[in-house]
Every structure is written in C-alpha cells, then in structure tokens.
Amino acid sequence: xxxTIIAALGIAVAVAAIVVLTPPGATASGVPNxxxxxxxxxxxxxxxxxxxxxxxxxxxxxxxxxxDPRLSKxxxxxTTSGLFPYTFEEHCFSFIWIxxxxxxxxxxxxxxxxxxxxxxxxxxxxxxTYTNDTGKPAVRxxxxxVGSLREVRLITNAPGCEAPQITHTSFDADISWGEHACVxxxxxxxxxxxxxxxxxxxxxxxxxxSAADTPTPTPTPxxxxTPxxxxTPxxxxxxxxxxxxxxxxLLWLGLVIAAxxxxxxxxxxxxxxxxxxxx
Length: 279
Description:
By secondary structure, the chain is an alpha+beta fold. It is built from three helices and 13 strands, in the order αβββββαββββββββα. The two termini are 20 Å apart.
C-alpha cells in the first residue's frame, strides 16, 4: 500500500478520534457552547437557550457606552431564564449579553440586547453631590463623564465660595474657584448635568493649591473585576478561559491512535510484500 495512503488513513483516524471524544455540549477547548436566543424586556425575566451540557452556570454582563462590562448576576447550570439587577442609567442606555462558563473558561457571548426606555422616558438631567473628603482645602473639581454631556450647572455652592468658573467637553467637567482654596474638607457642592443621552457620572478629582498641575484623585474602592477589556459600545468581549486547556488530552490520544494506525497499516503492507511469490 502506498505510503501516502497510509499517512492519510492515520490522519483520518486521529481526526475521527478527536471528534468522537469531544462532548457534544463542549468546544474543543473544553469551554461550554455559547447560549443563544437571549431575549427579554423590562416587565418579565430574560430567557435564553442552553446549548451546552458541561457548564457550571451562566453570567450576565452589562456594558454602558465607553465603559468596561460589569458582571450583573450568575445563574445555576441548566437555567434558561431569570431576572438580574441593573441601574436606572443602565436601563436607559446599555448593552446586555450572557455567557456559559466552567473551569475551562467562558463561552463566546450570546447575542446582545438593549432595553427600551422606561415609562416616562430617560432623564434629561442628573443631580450629583460632591464632598471634599481629601482632608485639604480645594480650588478645583474635575469630573470624568461617561455619556453625552451638554451642560453643567452649579445648584449649591460650598459655603463662602464665590461662583466658580465651569467649563466642560462632551465627556468631562471642570469646576474652578480660582487661585484661593475655598472648598474646605467636608464641604459639598451640588451640580446638575444636562445630557443628550443618559450617562453614568464619573469619579471626582479635587485639586489643591499646591498641586494644581498634578491633581490628587479621591481614594475610591477598587472596581469590580470584569472578564473583558474595554470594548466599543455594543462590541462583545472575546471568550474567556485558557484556549486549548481541555484539548491537549484529546489531541494526544488522537495522535497515539493515528500512530498505531500507521504502524498497523505499515505492517500489513510489509507482510503483503514478503508474501508475494518470486517469479
């Protein structure tokens, strides 16, 4: 038998072994198959189709524009519907999807859904209170925004402070009281944000007279870890886990079977040649 035919048969045996030994509800890397048909609205629970039989559960992720996705809730394995929490701003403008997961990692994401506006529509203005908790008098307040910012207004000023100068871009706000610090530790100001689309107000940075050029951020708790990097709104994160972690044993088994098939077929070919009568 020609060697090319023997090699081809060996490869076919290896591929067949990997296909047969891969569970129907898992990918070759061992992570679950992605759920599909993710759907829901603001009235009832969300639902999805479970396409795997090796998941440890499901995770729902929510992403605001220009922000990292956050984990909203985990569900038990074999679950196909459920409710999960989200904020009012997330309700108004966010992207939501679900993944299956196990020890090998997360599946690819499901389809992405968005929520319709709540009754009465989304807010056009947001009010936020900022308290100087840095322990030093401040002359300036910087605020990073997420969303479409149209205008910022001062509703309540800190005691003894003159009206600040307020500037803003589409995403950031800058409130300055001049060269002399007047916002003492513990004092607060209230701002009103006029937006063209709902936003999540970012973290404040209080600037002190001795560090006007190098702002000192207000200490904040560490953010909740998310499995996906910053993504363009609506873009889905790549599947997590360690690719290939579950495929190595199957691949080795396939190669062993292939090698055995090649040796067996080679032996048959050699026997056939020795058995031919001499002319």
